[in-house]
Amino acid sequence: MGNLHYEGADRAIIHSGDIKQPVARLYLLKDGWHAKLATVHTKQAWSGPYDSPEAAVAVLLGSSVVD
């Protein structure tokens, strides 16, 4: 399961329990939510758009969000 931490209306972090070690960062762009993997630093690190941050967690981690 993934944890979702909002940093504002247009940014969020996906982490698996330790917020200092994020799995990905989410950004709300014009066409929806986009994810940038924290450990990959190439253009392949980006994915999306997603309808919601929760949808991004489901695709990236294959699980649901834990509050």
What attributes characterize this protein structure?
mainly beta; 67 residues
Explain this structure to me?
- This protein is mainly β.
- The protein is about 15% helix and about 50% strand.
- It contains 1 helix and 6 strands; from the N terminus they run βββββαβ.
- It has one helix spanning about 55-60, and strands at about 1-10, 10-15, 20-30, 30-35, 45-50, 65.
- Strands 5-4-3-2-1-6 form a 6-stranded mixed β-sheet.
- Strand 2 (about 10-15) and strand 3 (about 20-30) form a beta hairpin.
- The longest helix has 9 residues, at about 55-60.
- The protein is globular.
- The model has no long low-confidence stretch (mean pLDDT about 90).
Write a short abstract of this structure.
Helices cover 13% and strands 49% of the residues.
List the helices and strands and how they pair.
Elements: E1 2-8, E2 11-15, E3 22-29, E4 32-37, E5 46-50, H1 53-61, E6 65-66
Parallel strand pairs: 1-6
Antiparallel strand pairs: 1-2, 2-3, 3-4, 4-5
Radius of gyration: 11 Å
| Total number of helices | 1
* N-C termini distance: 10 Å
How many strands, what sense, and barrel or not for the largest sheet?
Answer: 6 strands, mixed
The whole-number mean of residue pLDDT values reads 89
Which strand-content bin applies to the residues?
over 45%
Structural class: mainly beta
**Strand neighbour order, sheet with most strands:** 5-4-3-2-1-6
